[in-house]
Amino acid sequence: MEAIDLLVLGLPVSALGGTRGQVEKLAEGTHEVGNGKKVVVRKVLVVAQPQGALVQYAGMALVS
Question: What is the pLDDT of residues 16-42, one digit of tens each?
């Protein structure tokens, strides 16, 4: 079975406060992905979407 050690998800800032815990619970655990295959998500980190964009931009600057 495939595994994801850390899955990072982004939510709109307006939805972050009320739904972060629910999204983490839904995403963590074992999921069927088709053709009899399963994947295990061990840990989930939910951040605000603008944070994800900033991290992506910073990573691009480090590569170039």
Answer: 888 999 999 999 999 999 999 999 999
Where do the domains of the chain lie? 2-63
pLDDT band per the 50, 70, 90 thresholds, residue 63: low
- pTM of structure: 0.76
In 3D, which of 15, 50, 43 has the Cα closest to residue 28? 43
CA angle 63, 55, 30 (to 5 degrees): 110
Q: Which residues of 2-12 are buried (b: 16+ CB within 10 A; e: fewer)?
A: eeeeeeeebbe
Start-to-end CA span in the chain (Å): 36
Could you tell me how many residues make up the chain? 64
